[in-house]
Amino acid sequence: MLTKRIIPCLDIKNGRTVKGVNFVDLRDAGDPVELAAAYAEKGADELVFLDISATEEKRKTLAKLVLDVAEQLNIPFTVGGGISSVEDVDVLLKNGADKVSINSSAVKNPDLINQLSDKFGSQCIVVAIDAKNIAGDWKVHLVGGKVPTDLDLFEWAKEVEDRGAGEILFTSMDHDGTKNGFANKALAKISEELNIPVIASGGAGKIEHFRDTFQKGKADAALAASVFHFKEIEILELKNQLRTAGIPVRI
């Protein structure tokens, strides 16, 4: 059985790590290079770096900062934000990223998923999907959750897989930063319908939430930010409790 992965997320704005609630009210959470080094040492399985304002500000991901973070890591490193071309991905991979995450650009130009998968391999392409439950329907949102679309979460997730993505990072905007648990019903539906790994994001508040997203949400990995950044949950303790609950993790 494949081990379940624990992934801290560095949301980056103006070169600093930030964290908010429901994608707004951001507060400073520390230096990304220092945090990356600490997570690699403390047992994180992977690290995700999201330049959350790159798309809105119509600029590229901060390649120099990516390089500085990558130099601290000995674990897989995914980078996202402002990526819209093969050239963008090439720069980030050369600066130390192992995988890239695309979101708004994939919706605006779905062929980009095919192009990146063909060029770099599906194992390197993560498609992030931010979605909100509106009157019972999960709708995809773009530009850091600021722009709603008519795209259905589950239909889009299936298309993403068909186009060659190797992994999906699903963030529930309703759960983001609330610390009330992950969107496990939606996660379970995505996981059952797809054959690629699904990363759960949005809502981690306590250790039980991670257990539930692996058992009820059928997630392959769980991503969190503030509970790790502010030391509310230690990764090793989390993994020990997950293992006690019968969930396979790497320690």
From TrEMBL:
GO terms for cellular component: cytoplasm. Keywords: Amino-acid biosynthesis, Cytoplasm, Histidine biosynthesis, Lyase. It is found in: Cytoplasm. The keyword Cytoplasm applies. The active site is at residues 11, 130. SUPFAM superfamilies: Ribulose-phoshate binding barrel. Pathway: Amino-acid biosynthesis; L-histidine biosynthesis; L-histidine from 5-phospho-alpha-D-ribose 1-diphosphate: step 5/9. Its main location: cytoplasm. It is an enzyme of class 4 (lyase). Pfam families: His_biosynth. GO terms for biological process: L-histidine biosynthetic process. One of its GO terms (molecular function) is imidazoleglycerol-phosphate synthase activity. It catalyses: 5-[(5-phospho-1-deoxy-D-ribulos-1-ylimino)methylamino]-1-(5-phospho-beta-D-ribosyl)imidazole-4-carboxamide + L-glutamine = D-erythro-1-(imidazol-4-yl)glycerol 3-phosphate + 5-amino-1-(5-phospho-beta-D-ribosyl)imidazole-4-carboxamide + L-glutamate + H(+). Its EC number is 4.3.2.10. Heterodimer of HisH and HisF. IGPS catalyzes the conversion of PRFAR and glutamine to IGP, AICAR and glutamate. The HisF subunit catalyzes the cyclization activity that produces IGP and AICAR from PRFAR using the ammonia provided by the HisH subunit. PANTHER family: IMIDAZOLE GLYCEROL PHOSPHATE SYNTHASE HISHF (PTHR21235:SF2), IMIDAZOLE GLYCEROL PHOSPHATE SYNTHASE SUBUNIT HISF/H IGP SYNTHASE SUBUNIT HISF/H (PTHR21235). Belongs to the HisA/HisF family. HAMAP family: HisF. This is Imidazole glycerol phosphate synthase subunit HisF. It comes from Christiangramia lutea. The gene is hisF.
